[in-house]
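Crash report, auto-generated. Payload:
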Amino acid sequence: MSATKLTIASTAILAAAATGAIAQSRDNVQIAGSSTVLPYASIVAEAFGENFDYPTPVVESGGSSAGLKRFCEGVGENTIDIANASRAIRAGEVETCAANGVEEIIEVRIGYDGIVFASQIDGPAFNAFEPADWFQALAAELPQDGAMVANPNTQWSDVNGDLPAVDIAAFIPGTKHGTREVFEEKVLLQGCEDTGAMQAMMDMGMDEDATEAACMAVRTDGASVDIDGDYTETLARISSNPEGVGVFGLAFYENNTDTLKVATMSGVEPTVDTISTGEYPVSRPLFFYIKKAHIGVIPGLKEYASFFVSNEVAGNGGPLADYGLVPDPELAETQAKIENETTMGTGS
Amino acid sequence: MTDATQIPSSGAARPAGKSIITTDDRTKKRNAAEKRFRMYGIAAILAGIACLVVLLGSILMNGASAFQQTFIQVPVYLNPEAVDPNGNRDPEEMGSATTFTYKPIVVDAMAALVEERGIETEIDPGDMDALFSAAAVAQVRDRVLANPELVGETVTFNILASSRVDGYLKERVSRDSVARDSNIDAGHLDIVDELRAEGDVVKRFNWDFIFGADASESRPEQAGMGVAMLGSFFMMLVVLGLSLPIGVAASIYLEEFAPQNRLTDIIEVNISNLAAVPSIVFGILGLAVFIQFMEFPQSAPLVGGLVLTLMTLPTIIISTRAALKSVPPSIRDAALGVGASKMQSVFHHVLPLAMPGILTGTIIGLAQALGETAPLLLIGMVGYIATNYPDGVASGFLDPNSAMPAQIYEWAKRADPAYYERAWGGIIILLVFLFAMNAIAILLRRKFERRW
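Recovered output after restart:
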């Protein structure tokens, strides 16, 4: 029967392919990690494939933590070469890496990403945000007369008279996102300090860790919604809720300016310029990490890294800046770092 | 049904004035209930049809435009100083001129075209890059490297328009929205309008969407489904090649040869249970077994196929067993009666008669596997992956690739609204495949199925 023949033939091909897999060495760079870095990495990978004789690198998403976890699984062709991250690698992750044999890691900072607050284009304008407002609007508990009470604020105008009198409905990144960490640190913690709540909590006898945890605890009564998906999900929530405010990356906002209205933070509107000068307060560096042991083993790995941080790609006016990356003023140092293969913990 | 219309036999005569012909209250009530029940049924079907129409309608409305693409016809002067700095027309040395070198060439060509058509604009000639796709630069470079003799000449290229211009022709981008968009100005749209009147800007069917590779975040206009389609194809080969023989062998043994005991009962229950296991579980299993333990390459269609095989097997076993069961025992008895061995009776008589049912089950199992995304997330098949066409059969199985549903999921996540349209377009392609497969299954069943 021909069907039997077909299946036998295809099983044979499979078996041949499977044995070939062990013998064949990998000739493309494999990258995984932050979904914030993914757009930039895909732009670079595409241009790299066009301009060099190496195959186009493979870029997977999944989040900074997931990417670094896979990065630290060990050395070898079935592990990834580069992890993209929207935050710096943690000490614990470096230890895990070292325990699995990934001892030499090159840290590459590619530039900065602004975190913007935006609402529906037809909704009310939010033009007076301060970190303090976000803390007071989103904190789970606020100190009042020497005791912690549940957050009583229900409208933005309750926390700041200059804000519109609409119900608080914030869509913030979920805890698996690197963006959440920046949001907690640069907005909630900052706001906690600005409002004096931090001092009040200390005065109440809370230790430093407990105070920080209390500052970053977000209310769970529905006024704040964690978005575990991507920015497209936040956008969908904003589109159906004219009074909602969402947290986005600058690049995502710049691609959707026709449906989103950006809010100012501390009176500054987020643009590539205001972020690069540091005027706009909420930004964070973006990184990728290279496994040094793979350089020279995986073809094109070092070339990809140098191409990524070259002036014509990551510099001013390059395709990454066009897409929304804020160029790193210290790009030359990063370039030298890749050239010399300087690993973390050595050199600078 | 009978007792209500019959006269109760235990005494109690029918009420006076009521005949068998006129219906009494109780019968009326029963008839009304039956009528209501039918109405509920019709309402349920109508609701189902309405949902289907809304779904298909929105898919078609959102996705149909992905099959059209805007192109700009522009004569490009290939400046020898820029593209061949060494002046020896050697493609290898000319490769050192990167796409960044080519960008000003295309920008100048665009500005020259605008000037030649006598279009007055306030747009700075240097800002013409908002009109065309970043892919255009690579297109020009590839052509020059392939034909070095073109250097120094003016060659007409059909370059892709940028996603905003494309959106404008498709009415996705309006002049109102452009006012708020920092990527393009209203002035650009005026140029597009005039070039369109001159016939330099045209919208036509986009074969690259069906056959092309994935593109990066900044060029949705270039992205296509072709490579992901091949990824799906190789995965389906693996699924078919493994799950059909294993599934059929397992079901023949269980159905025809295995003794009925506790052990086969347990196996049977477990197969039914496996069929109900969520597909993401198979993804986690695949990651642990195939990639981490057996060290198969990541993102490879081979691994995707193996994972989907695990998922498809129970479906195939269950449908094959049903098909074998439906062959009447008299066929087996007759075969055995004329002296055939048990194996001969199965392979010469039972299996051919059960084949239509087996094939139908297999195709439906494959269609299910074709639309599956969740397990692929875990074995690294989602992301910017489907970029290179495989070089051959082995590379098709082993090189990183995506699959159609994974590609759609990836597009739906991307920031540029043009990718949203692509995602809907991708759904149309996927649905065409699924409908085709289901249609084949139905045809096979209609043509070959025998009823006893």
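Post-recovery validation: The CA atoms of residues 103 and 339 of chain B lie 80 Å apart.
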